[in-house]
Amino acid sequence: MATASNAPIGIFDSGIGGLTVFAAVRRCLPHESILYLGDTARVPYGTKSAETVVRYSRECAGFLVERGVKALVVACNTASAYALPDLEKRFNVPVLGVVGPGCEAALAASERRSIGVIGTAGTIASNAYGNALKALDPGVRVVSRACPLFVPLVEEGWIDNEVAHAAARRYLKGLKEEGIDTLILGCTHYPLLAGIIKMELGDAVRLVDSAETTAHVLQGMLEGRNLAAQAAGPSSSHIYVTDLPARFESIAQRFLKGEVPSITRVDL
Amino acid sequence: MATASNAPIGIFDSGIGGLTVFAAVRRCLPHESILYLGDTARVPYGTKSAETVVRYSRECAGFLVERGVKALVVACNTASAYALPDLEKRFNVPVLGVVGPGCEAALAASERRSIGVIGTAGTIASNAYGNALKALDPGVRVVSRACPLFVPLVEEGWIDNEVAHAAARRYLKGLKEEGIDTLILGCTHYPLLAGIIKMELGDAVRLVDSAETTAHVLQGMLEGRNLAAQAAGPSSSHIYVTDLPARFESIAQRFLKGEVPSITRVDL
Questions:
Q1: Residue B117's pLDDT is what?
Q2: CB atoms < 10 A from the CB of B23, how many?
Q3: Mean pLDDT, residues A54-69 taken together
Q4: Do A81 and A159 sit in the same domain of this protein?
Q5: Which of A59, A233, B74, B209 is the most buried (most CB within 10 A)?
Q6: Residue A2 clears pLDDT 50, i.e. is over it
Q7: Residues B164-209: tens digit of each pLDDT
């Protein structure tokens, strides 16, 4: 059975950070319907073991595949880093993570082939970005740094105060001294800290956010497989979460900067 | 069937913070065996909804009750705030949370009956401390403040740098101005930040950590029910976790400041 081109795209994340990918896909592919799943009952993934992240990712992907998605986007960097090969083997739909597109964008942006990567403890420990960058360009220099406090800072809404600045200064000091010219924001929350990261590193360092590139790679993938939605068709999107805490909708608003689709709590 | 007095005590927490309670119980009751469960695969609880926290707490308590514990200590403040009545109804062993003992200790320490409470978003939203303090002393004044960044700061090991100081200054400013004379550290991670909290609030404000008081209340509860271990008996303790991330043992070491019992990963 061929997957219908009017089937929705599935996007999952450990929580709400993946809504930056949701927003980019909605901008780039306005005729597509999207089912988004945020595993907010078990967020974050970035501090957990590879084994646990793979197990959770399977459950998230399975939930979306059961709902008939034509393609899967793993919006969580930690899940992309640990679980992509497992999901590709296990599910019969194209699977796209954010690590590959982020690396392509960084290599296109970097002139000196000296690239920094920041992410959660899990993403950095996996070395997924380093391996993918070296596979694309063996001569590239990669400097990685885990920034565990950046996610809670964004969720607290502290993206431009003295606490955020002090944390950014501490995490990024070493990277600045390494002379990178491009920095991959290897976590979906980090684009919200782009302002203070730029202040710390200076304008000479380009920031790469994988959300936009992921949307473009997804577009090419769908077109290449004749899975793109017909322009005339109506699109409809939905957000599923495994927990619905008090401030969820206001935080979602911050990520989506616009219309928030209807939200349903589900058990995996 | 009467519960044997040589059965272990069960302690659970959303993660590793409850090891401060484990350590206090071990000091206060050296002849008792302890089974500790940290739900590290789903940590934290403090940002999640009441419904989800109650469900997780039931699963944690059930795991320990199945292993024959003679009493349950809910070391997590958020779980104590939301789930205690449910656990008391559901399980046939005495259940002790950390909120009640923390309130008793605070009322004993406060001279002006003006008490501050800091905790996770969930603990503060529940108003469990406020309600319990008012039930014990209707004339007490209570000022509460959620400090969501304190847990990630402790887990990052940033307990005395400029980021921790800036966060403490921002969270505690209002409390200082309210003229409290006692502050309840309503989260098991917070005692590790006692140094900077004291610097911010000054020596006139007494800090109350519920771990010690909880151990003493537990002692009274066991003696009152003839459940205290016999002094001659050997004790043995064990730690269970639902995830075993890379740095778990080093973080556990920081909380226990001494011998770390053997650790097993389990699924709930």
A1: 98
A2: 17
A3: 98
A4: no
A5: B74
A6: no
A7: 999 999 999 988 889 899 999 999 999 999 999 999 999 999 999 9
- What is the tens place of the pLDDT at every residue in B224-247? 999 999 876 667 899 999 998 777
- Chain B hits for A50, CB-CB cut-off 8 Å, are none
Are both B104 and B81 inside the same structural domain?
Answer: no
The domain containing residue A255 runs over which residues? Answer: 9-97+212-265
Instruction: Select from B93, B79, B74, B91 the least CA-distant residue to B25.
Output: B74
- Closest CB to B156: pick one of A42, A149, A162: A149
Answer yes or no: do A220 and A200 share one domain.
no
Residues ≥6 apart with Cβ < 8 Å to B70: B3, B4, B5, B7, B8, B9, B93, B222, B227
Measured over the CA atoms of residue A195, residue A200, residue A204 and residue A208, the dihedral's sign is: negative
Provide mean pLDDT across the span A145-173: 95
What average pLDDT is seen over chain B? Answer: 93
Distance from CA of A3 to the nearest CA of B (A): 34
Residue B73 predicted with pLDDT over 90:
yes
Residue A58, pLDDT > 70, answer yes
Instruction: Say what the pLDDT of residue B233 is.
Output: 64
Q: What are phi and psi of A69, to 5 degrees?
A: -70, 150
Q: Report which of residues B74 and A255 the model is more confident about.
A: B74
* Residue A227 is assigned to a structural domain of this protein: yes
B187 is annotated as an active-site residue: yes
Report the gap between the CA of A40 and the closest CA in chain B (Å). 8
CB contact under 8 A, B166 and A162: yes
Query: Does A1 reside within a domain?
Result: no
CB contact under 8 A, A156 and B162: no
For B53, the closest chain A residue by CA position comes to A41
Q: Are residues B78 and B148 in the same domain?
A: no
Domain count, chain A: 2
How many residues are listed for chain B in this entry? Answer: 268
A187 belongs to the catalytic site: yes
Chain A residue nearest residue B49, CA to CA: A245
Question: Is A4 contained in some domain?
Answer: no
Q: What is the pLDDT of residue A177?
A: 86
A155 contacts B244? CB cut-off 8 A: no
Instruction: Look at residue A2 and tell me if it is in a domain.
Output: no
